[in-house]
Fold this sequence. Notes:
transmembrane; transmembrane helix; 3 strands; about 5% strand; 3-stranded mixed beta sheet; mainly alpha; globular
Amino acid sequence: MSKVFRFIGKAALWFFVITILWVIIYRFVPIPVTFLQVQRCFEQKADGKEIKLEKDWVSFEEISPNLKRAVIASEDQLFMEHMGFDWDAMRKAWVYNEKKKGKKVKGGSTISQQVAKNVFLWSGRSYIRKGFEAYFTFLIEIFWSKKRIMEVYLNVIEMGDGIYGAEAAALEYYKKPAVDLSKREAASIAAILPNPLNWSPTKPSPMVKKKIKRIMRFMRILGPVGFE
C-alpha cells in the first residue's frame, strides 16, 4: 500500500511540475496549436471537407482596442476585476440550466476559463474536464497578466469555420488587419463568438444584429480598457 501512495505522490508531483512549466512557457511564446483546432481539422476531414486552418498570431498591440473592448463587453464584463471566475455568472448559468434541462446549455465561463479550455484542454462537459479547467484557470491568473490572457484569447479563439484569432477573422471578413477593425466590425465579430460555426459577422441574422447593438452599447459604457 505504501508503494501505491508513493507512486501517486510522485505522479501528482510530476503533474504539478509539468503543468506549471507548461503555463509559464506559454506566458512568453505564441501558442502553436490548440486541441480544438486539431479536433476541427479531423471533423472537417470526416465530413469530406477540405481542411481549413486559418490562424496568424499577432502581438497584443496589433489588435484593435475596439476588439478587446468588444469581447469584454460581450463575454466577460468583469474580466479586469475577477481572478478567473465570475461566481455570480456561474450561479445564474447553473440555475438557468437546471430550469431548462434538455434544452441548450447556457455557459458562465469567463475569458480566462475559455483560454484555459482552448489552450490546455479537450472539448467536453465532463466534471473531470471542468476540474482541469478550473486548475488551469487558476494557474494562468497567477502566472500570466490580464494583458497576456487577452492576447492569447484573441489569437486562438474560434471565429468561424477554420478561422482562429483576430487577425485571421479580420482578413477573412473585412479584408483588413485586426489593428484596423472599427467599433462595429469588432462588435460584429464578438457577437458570433458563442456560435462561430453558424453565425456570421458580415451576414448577421436578426438575433445577431440585436447582439451587435447590445455589445456596442456596453462598449460605450465600458469606455477604454486599461491593461498592465
